[in-house]
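anyone seen this seq b4? input:
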Amino acid sequence: MFTRAPRQPTPRARGGEPVRRTGPHGETDTSAATPTPVQPNPLGGESYRLTLPNTANAPRLARDFLTSLLHLSRHPGLVDDARLCVTELVTNAHRHTRTPLIGVHVAVNRKRVTVAVSDDGGPAGTALARPLRTDDEQEHGRGLVLVESLALASGTGGGGERHPGRTVVWFTLGRPGATA
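predicted toks r here
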């Protein structure tokens, strides 16, 4: 179930030309012809992806995935904070969007781990919430504040804007002495 993000070549026809498919109205369908490229890991190291159905089990599955990766990559000291942060972000995606799938992308190297959670965004016209300072009695609205306080760095894919229908929220954790 947990695999390294695949690096796949562009499908090609016998003559070496990229495969082109057309939709029912003659339009070019590039989604089937060109697999999504794996982005290079800016930290060096390895990248992993997990795609989850948007169900109540998604936060637990994301926690388990991240815990396994951190133990395998020799980052056991980051497990508790990482589990809390990924739970908050995946729970937000589950509660506040109607996306069918939630993506978890993990980039890990010797010093740091960066986790990005993506979804198809909230209802049309809604803005991504900003972390708010909350009082001690409040039961909701603490997730982004918690992530911000635990992480070396955190943010959104585009400064809070939605890009091609996706919302990406990320955080970076590191070993003592690591910088963002």
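The two ends are 30 Å apart (CA to CA). The beta strands are 3-4, 21-22, 28-29, 46-53, 101-108, 112-119, 153-156, 167-174. kinda curious what u guys think
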